[in-house]
Amino acid sequence: MPTVRLAHVTKRFDNITAIDHINLEIHDGEYVCILGPTGSGKTTLLRLIAGVIKPDEGEIHIDGKLVNDVPPQERGTAYMPQQYALFPHLRVIENVSFGPLAKGVNRSKAAQISMQMLEMTRLAWRANSFPGELSGGMQQRVALARGLASSAKLLLLDEPLGALDARLRVELRYRLRELAQKNNLTTIHVTHDQAEAMIVADRIVVLRNGQIQQEGPPTYIYSQPKSIFVANFVGGANFLEGFISEKNSDGSWVELRGRLRIFISENDHPVGERIVLAIREESSWIGKNGEDEVNVIRGTVNTTSFLGDFMSHEVLLENGDTVNCRVPTAMTSEKFSIGEEVFVQLKPQDIKVYPYPPAGLYKELEAL
Amino acid sequence: MPSVRLVNLTKRYRDVVAAENVNLEIQDKEYVSIIGPSGCGKTTIIKCIAGLIEPSEGEIYIGERLVNNVPIQERGVGYVFQEIALFPHMNVYDNVSYGPTVKGWERTRTRSLAEEMLNLVALRDRMKDYPNELSGGARQKTAISRALSSGSLLLLLDEPLGSLDAKVRLVLRRELRRMVKDLGLTAMHITHDQEEAMAISDRVVVMKSGKITEVGTPLGLYLHPKRLFTANFVGEANFIMGELVKSTSEGSIIEVNSKTLRGIEGTNLEKKEVVAAIRPEFVVMEKNSKKTEAWKGKIEDRVFVGSVIRYEVRMDIGELIAVKKPAATDRRFDIGDEVYLTFPPQHVLLYPLPDAGLEKEISIE
Known about the structure:
The complex is a heterodimer. By secondary structure, chain A is α+β, with helices and mostly antiparallel strands.
């Protein structure tokens, strides 16, 4: 029954606080993604749980047992670091069955488990190759199979799909999730890729500067980001600066740059407060005609790019702000060309409001 | 006028053919991406153009000039690698002005060019910083502006965003295209990320096993891929095997077990085994359907992918079909629901069943 609990865990390197008083509880069988930009502390957090490094403060419990002083090999975890090392002189199958054999599993059973894991990572056909004969992506999958074959029930993965081609990564993330479910594993998976996190995770923990910014199921993080940082990092959005100019029981009026006024359905912020509005690109509607509806803004198409299942149009609004509008390819009946005059609608209920960041919006977005 | 022309370009390493009979023309001021799985030969091609490796056979023209025997520094190319290569002991300004300085440009001219290039990547206020004081994104921007300030009109980019965080990559790819277009450069950009290729390029070259599979515009490759491999590699697709039983001017009918599919292509495939491909977002999913061509099935999986929800539906006839719906408009289906799928004929792409089998043909290993 692998559960993990971190209580006030802090880790410093010289004068840098990599992990800053983190409290986190992970349930049995849960798949948790630690998501954050480079330098946010996500790898340090995983290394602390694996036991490769020790916390300066706080407690780490695995299965209800305090493990601060328990060495890595006795924590019952399979840890796959970003820089994994395969045995170069052993064949793929021997690399994978190393763990089970070391634990005293008999030879035929170990081979059977190992082949199963290699099938899952789609490498059974290279079982007899040596690591040096495989591509980087294949080697990463061998390391993953080896971690899985160790039969540990707590899987710690640091960017497990990082070295793979984008196309293969997309395919394998579905498998990874399936694999964890089928084997009843508790998984902690570190990544900087929000799309990956949303697909594999039951719960996402967003990390920044060693602190948890927000945690919850993917749909919650995506639909209710608590900060500009989370909105920007998970999914991205259009951000518009302004201040609250008026409010009533239905919502508030916000004055944007160029004295453009738009209506939002939230009214928690006081009149006069400087704020930032965020709206998802797919909720920023683009059209050829300006119907007489709320928050319809005139603009000109700057660029238009095709992203596969989406088209993205960058529109310069009449007040000088720029927004991106994403339209599903399957729904693009209207075509927009560069320089064309269009109308953008931002529906009040889709707009989120945040206090203006002390260091400025640009700095907050750039902080990635 | 940096157009690029490759004629029967072949590169062999002992018994391995890394690139085989590659013919390709890039227009002046065009932004072209080369995509393909690891080991497909895309880096080999760029290295041949840069002059870092010599082709075994074939000709390389930059503009009208045959450059096979022209050394690297005289080819007029700027080169950016995945591994960010800056001089660690030089600050941002010195890194960017390195090219013009060694070429013997006078100081004021060097300075104004370097500042202009740093302006383009919004790094002018970081001129005095050293590489180790910058984020990965800022370092790669410095490397790009250094390549730009070399004065080359042909930019070769080998996974220039590969070592960056996913989010930074999204921002930087937009900036990269804008810079190349503003400066009127020709760019060749290698990536393993098909979405990046589509977003950034005028045209995309798809490679597999050392050969060009297909060349086209992003939209063309996505909506009308000529090859099964492209349909799978550029975006996701469902592949359904069946027999094309009838083809008329109205379209064709494909039998899949007891069900049928309609397509608008396939006149040359009558009575043949075919593979039908359809993108998950073009599949129509309904709770009820009276249409005879609707396929019945049950939702096995439902995953939220940000702005999209992706379903996997197990059809009664056994096929597993992926369906994607925009999250904003779709809240109606759950795991376990019985649903009916239909496949709009204009989005059903038809291909002859490959001799080596479907799996082998679309394999990305």
